[in-house]
Each structure stands twice: as structure tokens, then as C-alpha cells.
Amino acid sequence: MSIQFQGGVFKLETRSTSYHIKITDQAYLMHLYYGAKIGDADVSCLFPRAERSFSPNPAGYPGRDFSLDTLPQEYSGSGAGDFRLSSLAAGHGAVDLHYVRHRIVGGKPALAGLPSCCAAPGGVETLELELEDPVSGLCVRLLYGVYEADDFFTRSAVIVNRGTAPLTLHRAMSFCLDLPAEPWQLLGLPGAWARERQPERQPLRHGVQGFGSKRGASSHQHNPFFALCAPHTTEHSGPAYGFGLVYSGSYACLVEQDQFDTVRCVMGIQPEGFSWSLGPGEAFYTPEAVLAFSRQGLNGMSQIFHRAVRTHLCRGPWAHRRRPILVNNWEATYFDFDEQKLLALARRAAELGVELLVVDDGWFVGRSSDTSSLGDWSEDPAKLPRGLAGLAEALAETGLALGLWIEPEMVSPASELYRRHPDWCLHQPGRPATTGRDQLVLDLSRKDVRDHVWQQIDSLLQKAPISYLKWDMNRHLTEVGSALLPPERQGEAAHRYMLGVYELMERLFKHYPQVLVENCSGGGGRFDLGMLHYSPQLWASDDTDALERAKIQYGTSYCYPLSCMGCHVSAVPNHQTGRVTSLKARGDTALWGQLGYEMDLALLTEEEKAQVRRQCEFYKRFAPVLHAGAFYRLPLPGAPGQLAWGVLSADQRQIFVFHMAPAAQANAPVRLLKLPFAAPGLRYRETSSGCCFQGTTLRYAGIALPPHPGDCVTTLLHFQAQ
Questions:
Q1: N or C: which end of the chain has fewer CB within 10 A?
Q2: Can you give 320-384 as a three-state secondary structure string?
Q3: Does residue 662 contact residue 585 with C-beta atoms inside 8 Å?
């Protein structure tokens, strides 16, 4: 059993971690411990009671040595003596939560309307802890999913109004975790469009630190993931906690170091602008969070997340299959294309080993620029005289399948759909609408709007054998309001919109499981665990420059596995940075994710075509090994700006290594790269050079990186056990 209850203490155990909770004499849930596995140890003695000035005592408590303001809690209330970050706020009064009952169940219940980790394969147990505010009747069911074999926990909350009057939630976080006083450091993944998920690590200070999104999407600017680690934690050693939110809308990740240096973490839906009306008997489900702890440093923590995503979050027939190599026509043609141009691109691509042509923006009627026609999803007969079905038939003769770009959440003011239904957009009465990229956002909180959008998607997939769908979202939410919600419930619109998106994506998943869906939001603007429940890969960034992409993929790896990163080789000079890099560097970088090309292949030289063929052959042969193996970031002390990472195959018999030197250095020192994951008892041969190394040599002495004349030079190594 991974969950035990004895003497008022709950003990949750995974393969290498423990999570302990105690019911106090006052019926509060006290957090005792989360970290390396300690078994049946009783750690209650770590929390001696003491009087703290200006920390109030609960009503009826006979002394002064107990206060919610200092108690480590599992889910914090508000206004009842705890002045730290609250997990729940409702109505205009206090929220004071007391333990009522619990149950332990096999498996894991679904969260209504929300993505979450699934139970299979592998066993999982769930602890349900029920808390109640005795005055308001507000009830909270805390859900703890225990993934014993895969070493992680999930947390979420179900909030139920068991009172007789309506209540309005103003704050409903997914979890609360109180950690002891230690000099923790916070690692997040901030960024911007075209430079997403750049790791940033800083010491905690007193007060509240954090980040989030108020954009209606998880955003390019921040990612719904963060880690806490000790100052001495490295990639390979030391304690590291990781927290990821399975949600794609506005969110908050907040960490508070209090007056006694203890640390509280809360994570969930962004409270600003949020409210939710709960009538008697109604329930609200918070998004799920994934919690991971490792003593093997940040790499160890990342690997837990990678396994969780691959095994328990991604679903369907594409979750563990090699994805097809694609060519996207966007940077090759932009809006200027027709069927003949597409077929010419397809024929060249087929000769090089590409398997799928993706027709990007501009295929539908009236769409010659990004200023019009979103929402009118029918083929442009001037560009596609035989329609998508005719194009798919012609593509099949070249050996390529058909993929399609679509942006179903949006509408252009210059469109037939908007002219017929201007009220179908998110809007606030009397307030002018803000546009982004000359488009507005459809109100997917409305069933009639969702049904219309689904009818369009279903029609496209019925009329042509489309095997891949790129679902894009190219603006964030403003003037968030719904015509169908009364004024007092407009604070629900943003979350209801996200639930509507999830409902549409679930329909797509259930009706067309064979279609490979890649989610996108101007690149990496909705790269989150929630989206991975509906599509097994996400477009990592619109920036396809080799150097910038290597940085983005490096940062992304802190939470997300290689298997979910869409990566393309594009033309030079790069369309985002203007930088010129070699085709080898672009290919070496893209091979670690889901490989694609985005360029006019007619401009390649014969030598470059041969390189593309080799890249495609490498991907087809090794992508399943790369994407199922254990990923390691490999620091290079004394070499600022240089990036290195590696993958160890599941059977430990293959090692893959990537290194990028961004800038040439005169008379450069020799850099030794250690591979601490190499199997000590094996002997490995590097396949390109033929050199052989003992596993212990690779682990402790390393390999000498080759010299790198020029900028953005990459090295790709493959070691095979002999």
C-alpha cells in the first residue's frame, strides 16, 4: 500500500519519497514532511509548539502556543489567523477549514472538465481528505494521487458548497505546501515570444515571490512550472522540488518566505479577475498539479516529470509512436502558394525522406494576409481548386500525408462569421474590443459557439484524409466577458473559456484519435502540461534559429520531455534573428525533438540535400530511443554560453550527446565533457570516430570536445555499447 493511516498520521510513499500529514487535536491538517523516503518515522517532534507574538490562537484553544499563522498546513484558509498566502477565499468572511473524514481509493478519479494524469499503466492510489468550514458549510476535498512506481504525487481540490446560501469563490488554488526553514532557491522559466522558457534561479527572500499569467493562456512570458532547490543543488546532486500545473489558462505560482523563514508554495488559477458562484450543492474543481522531489539534483527532478508526461499525461495512439517527419510550407511560401507550389515542395521533400506536408495559414477563402477571414474555414478554390481532398490525393502519389494548420479559437472582424455573429466574441458591453493580429477571440464558454467550431473541424476532417492538425492560438484574452453570463458572474468567463477549449480538444481526441495534433500559440505561448493531455507534442517556439532554439529546448527540458517538443530546421538567414547558421547546426538541434523542416527545399544544394537525407535517416532510426531514454543536462563549468545535454537509452547501451559552442574563441582551451550517466560496467564505441571508452572513463574523466572554428558549431555524438 502506498497510503497508510495510523495514529492520526497519513503516510504517502512512492519509490523514493515520503509525504506525511497529521490531524491535529484541533482537527487541522498539518503538513509534516515531504522529501526523501523516511518510511514509518514519526516526525511530529520536528514541530515544537511555541508562543509567537501577534500570531493569534484559534477560538477555544486553551493556550498561546498554537496558531494557524505558524502551523504548516495542507490547504490554508483565509481571515482566521493565518496571515500567509491563502489557498481559498470565499464570500466576505473567513474560511477556517477542519478535518472531517477521509477515504483511500484505488485508481484516480477524473477531474470534471479538466485534464489530469491518468492511472494507467502502473498503479496509483488516491487519498481524499475532506475539510469543512463549520460556519459557511464550505467543504474542500483534497485529492492526493500517489504514483508509487513513477515517484510523483498529484494534488487538486474539489470545493463544494454544503451551505444553504450561494457562495462566491475569489481564490481557489490547487495545492498548498509548507516547507521548513532552509535557504531555498527558486527556479522559474521566464521568457518572451521567440525566447521562451529561459531558466532563471534566484534565492528566496522574505515576502512573496512568484509569477504567473493574466493573459488567458499560460503565456510566452512565464511557464506554469517552478522548482525549489538548495544553494548547493546541481544538475546531478542535491535536493530539488518541482511543481507543474496541468492547466492552460491564467495561473499563479506563488512562494512566501515568512518571518520564521519557513516557505509556503501555492499554485493554481490566477486569483486576479477570477470569481466563481457556487450554489448550494454545487462543486468547483481546481486544476491538477504535479509534485516531484529528487535527491539527484535538477536532472533527477526533470526525469520524474518526463516520465509522468510520457506515461500518464500523453494519451492515444501517438503517445509512444515515432511521429512523422514533416515539411511546413510557412517559411517557404507564407501566404503566396497554390496547389502546384505545394506539390512541388512535397515532391522535393519526399526525395529527402520527409513523410508529411503541413499546409499552414492561408489555405482558406479570403486569406491572403493575417488581417481577415479567420472563422471562415473553407478551402480557397483559387489556391486549392480540387480542395483538400484533391490535394491529399495528389500528395499520396508522392508518398506524403496531409497536415493542416487551423486557428479555431479566433475570428477576424473581416469575416463572414463575425458579420453574422458579432456577439460570439469575448467582450464587455459598452467597451471597445482590443484586437491582436487583427483578430478577436471566440467565446468558447458558450455551447452554441463550441458546437459551431466543432462542426467546422469535423467537416474538415470528414472531407479529406488529414493525418495531422496544427491547432494555433495567436492572441491573448482581453475584455474577457460573455454575453450569456449575468454581470455578477463575469469573473467566471476566463476559466469557462478554458473549459470550453478543453471540451473541444477532448471531442477531437475521442472522434479522431488517429489524427496527430500539435498545439501551438504563436510558438510556445501555451506550452504546458494541460495541453499535453490532448496533444502529444507542442510547437516549442516560433524562433527556429539554431542557437536560440538550443537555449529554448534546454530550458524546456526542466519540466517537459523531448518527445513533446516540435522542432524545425528552417532557412537562413533566420527569419526571427537574421543569424546564419550551418544546416548541420540546425539539424543537430532539431533532431532532439519532433523533426520538421520549414524552408524552400528547392534552394538546397546537392550537398545540403545529402545532409537532410542523413538527418531524416538518423531521426527515423534513433528518435524512439532518444524520446524514451533518460535526458540529462550537462553543465560545462568555465564555458559560459555553451550548451550540452545527453540521453541514455533505457537499456543503457546507447548514449547520445549534443554540444553547441555559440561563439568562436581564439586559442580556446580544451573542454572535457563528463557523462555521469554512462554505465560503469560497459564499454562504449563512438560511432563516427570509432574510438572506444570505458563507461567509467566517460563518467569520471569525460571526453574532449572537438575544436569549433566559427560560431554556433554543434557536435552530435552517438556511443554504442560493445
A1: C
A2: CCCCCCEEECHHHHCCCCCHHHHHHHHHHHHHHCCCEEEECCCCECCCCCCCCCCCCCCECCCCC
A3: no
CA-derived radius of gyration, the chain:
26
pLDDT value, residue 123:
85
> What is the separation of C-alpha 16 from the centre of its chain, rounded to a whole number of angstroms?
24
404 CB burial (10 A radius; 0-12, 13-18, 19+): buried
Using alpha carbons, list the distances in angstroms from residue 579 to 545, 587, 628.
Answer: 7, 15, 32
pLDDT, residue 121, reads 62
Which residue reads 554512462 in cell numbers? 678
Q: Give the cell for residue 256.
A: 512566501
Instruction: Look at residue 594 in the predicted model and tell me its pLDDT.
Output: 98
Among residues 133, 360, 472, 545, the one annotated as catalytic is: 472
* Average of per-residue pLDDT across 23-43: 94
Neighbours of 605 (CB within 10 A): 9
**pTM above the 0.90 mark?**
yes
Would you call 453 helix, strand, or coil by DSSP?
Answer: helix
Element (H, E) at 451: helix 447-463
Q: How far apart are CA 441 and CA 423, in angstroms?
A: 11
Whether residue 588 lies in the annotated active site: no
Q: How far apart are the first and last CA of the chain?
A: 41
- As a whole number of angstroms, the distance between CA 108 and CA 154 comes to 10
Q: Of 542, 543, 545, 588, which is the active-site residue? A: 542
**Lowest mean per-residue pLDDT among 5-9, 429-433, 667-671:** 667-671
Copy the grid coordinates of residue 200: 532563471
Q: Are 209 and 186 in contact (CB under 8 A)?
A: yes
Exposed e or buried b for every residue in 118-130, given b needs 16+ CB within 10 A? Answer: bbeeeebbbbebb
Beta partners for residue 713, in sequence order: 661
pLDDT digits (tens, 9 = 90+) for 122-178: 689 999 999 999 999 999 999 999 999 999 999 999 999 999 999 999 999 999 999
Strand-strand pairing, 594-598 and 326-328? parallel
Residue with cell 477563402: 365
CA distances from 129 to 22, 29, 153, 158 (A): 11, 9, 15, 10
Residue 581: pLDDT above 90? yes
Cβ atoms of residues 560 and 199 within 8 Å:
no
**pLDDT for 481:** 97
pLDDT at 122: 63
Grid coordinates in use for 197?
522558457
Q: What is the DSSP string of 675-711?
A: -TTS-TT-EEEETTT--EEEHHIIIII-EEPPP--SS
pLDDT band at 476 (very low <50, low <70, confident <90, very high): very high
Which one, of 258, 199, 203, lies nearest residue 226 by Cα? Answer: 199
Question: What are the DSSP calls for 104-164, one per residue?
Answer: EEES-PPPTTS------SS--EEEEEEEE-TTT-EEEEEEEEEETTTTEEEEEEEEEE-SS
Measured distance CA(437)–CA(449) in Å, rounded: 21
- Mean pLDDT computed over 202-219: 98
pLDDT at 92 over 90: no
At 1 the pLDDT is 73
* CA pair distance 560, 541, nearest whole angstrom: 14
Average pLDDT over residues 356-371: 97
Is residue 451 part of the annotated active site? The answer reads: no
Residue bearing cell 501551438: 520
Q: Measure the CA–CA gap between 469 and 359, rounded to whole angstroms.
A: 10
User: 41 pLDDT band (50/70/90 cuts)?
Assistant: confident
* Each residue's pLDDT tens digit, 49-75: 999 999 999 998 989 999 999 999 999
Which residues in 683-705 are b (16+ Cβ under 10 Å) and which e? ebebeeeeeebbbebbbeebbeb
Q: Count Cβ neighbours within 10 Å for each residue of 51-68 and write b for 16 or more, e otherwise.
A: ebeebebbeeeeeeebbb
Distance separating alpha carbons of residues 656 and 648, to the nearest angstrom = 7
